[in-house]
Write a structure and sequence with these properties.
It is a single chain. The protein is an alpha/beta fold. Strand 5, helix 4 and strand 6 form a beta-alpha-beta unit. Helix 2 packs parallel to helix 5. The longest helix is centred in the middle third of the chain and has 15 residues. The radius of gyration is 16 Å and the shape is globular. Bound molecules: ligand CA2. The site of ligand CA2 has 17 residues, from loops.
Length: about 180
């Protein structure tokens, strides 16, 4: 098993794309990957009555601040492409202590994401800003939920941060994989 600790983290390059990857050293803290699916880069621009006025960058800041309090390093990403999300999940194998995912519309359609998530053996935490179960029927199915240790929906951005505190938490996943001291 690859140790659940990392020495680098990807950060956005504000000069180009908010999701651009650039590795840079951070403190030796367990890594939580936070993945965001299609159109979430439009948060704060349209449909505030459903998704609120916060931007994805606000949510990134919230996750990073909750992560810092809890001793997690946060790798926060967004993609409009299913295959890219699948690749990031594959790369997370053995490298992260937990995954928080708002797969957006892919939640309701993607067997590919479901299959990729099955490869992970750390807690998968599903989050939605709105509550899809109270919206149109096509949003009632989630291909993520059967694999999720916890689901937060309808709480807005704070759902992301709450998931970092929940149980089973990424920390439980991390601890269960640490060599026994006995
Ligand atoms: O409530 C959520 O977080 C969702 O995952 C958001 C998805 C939706 O397909 C899911 O059913 C529930 C949609 C994200 C699109 O976000 C937009 C934000 C601003 C303007 C337009 C879309």
């Amino acid at each position: 098993m690859v140790p659940q600790r990392v020495m680098t983290q990807t950060r956005p390059n504000p000069d180009t794309n908010p999701t651009h990857e650039r590795a840079r050293p951070v403190r030796d803290m367990p890594l939580i990957l936070v993945l965001n699916g299609p159109n979430l880069n439009m948060l704060g621009v349209r449909e505030p009555e459903i998704y609120g006025r916060h931007t994805l960058e606000d949510i990134r800041a919230l996750c990073e601040s909750a992560g810092a309090r809890l001793g997690f390093s946060i790798d926060f990403r967004q993609s409009n492409h299913e295959g890219e999300l699948v690749e990031w999940i594959q790369q997370a194998r053995g490298a992260v202590a937990g995954l928080v995912i708002n797969a957006a519309a892919y939640t309701h359609t993607s067997v590919a994401l479901h299959d990729a998530l099955k490869l992970l053996n750390v807690p998968i935490l599903e989050v939605h800003l709105s509550n899809p179960k109270t919206r149109e029927p096509f949003r009632h199915i989630s291909y993520i939920e059967p694999l999720a240790a916890a689901v937060f929906a309808g709480q807005g951005p704070k759902g992301y941060a709450c998931l970092l505190y929940t149980s089973p938490s990424p920390r439980d996943g991390l601890l269960s994989r640490m060599p026994s001291s006995a």
